[in-house]
Amino acid sequence: MTGVLLRINEKLDILSPSERKIAKYIIEKPEEIVGLSISELANKVGTSKAGIMRFCKSIDFKGYRDFSIKFASEIAVSKNKENNENVEYIDLQLGDKLETIIRNVCLNNKKAIDDSYSILDYAEVEKAVECILKAKCINIFGVGASYVVAMDAQQKFLRINKYCTAYADSHLQMTAASNSTVGDVAIGISWSGETKDTVEASRVSKENGATLISITKYGKNHLAEIADIKLMLAAPEAFIRSGALSSRTTQMNMIDILYSCILSRDYHNFKKYLEQTLKSVKYKKY
User: Fold this and answer.
1) Which of 112, 73, 102 is nearest to 253 (CA)?
2) Which CATH number fits domain 3-80: 3.40.50.620, 1.10.10.10, 3.10.310.10, 3.40.50.300?
């Protein structure tokens, strides 16, 4: 599935009835709309040109031209991929064989990263990197599986001497948020974007002057709505799972992207910190 189709699927539930009608037509007949003018698409769907424009803006495009160019290029790339398999997410089933589980988990994780890559907003990533580079303090908020991602981010940023917190306790998160100031960065991590502890700590941090970066699934949610910078990702909602699987993987991948971009911007300066931290823990190995 292309990045544009992923955007549409993720926003289906929050689109208006008229916009949902357009969305379903595009999902069902993606190749038929390539090359159509806005008037032609409106006639095929049975709506107005204004309705098409509203739909394009609802899925984060500037207008129909922006949407049609992006969609056509993605369809072309998708068709030209060698050995292109229409791989869908596969939920784990009770009683699956060991080899089936291994294959499905690997495929789901890979697809989550590929799908997230296809919808990632490069401009938002650029803004996030610039803010983190300039930050006096970085407070990372997340609970449950998202806290594991927060700890990974903390470990990476501390290695390059970026002062960073990632508290497991929600009271400590609120304390850190309350002490935030202008020049600080808060990173709220919640796959649903609806985790109250994370949203509240993020909101308080922003109210105190910090720049808020959200890392959530694609679509409308409370955390993304209050964020200054929105990093939105894609992954399946599995029915049978003991915890976040591919969603955690794609969040970890987003942290890797941020860290790598930051490191590349000022590697000569960060290199000394990497060497220092490596030396300080080297003796702990056998």
Assistant:
1) 112
2) 1.10.10.10
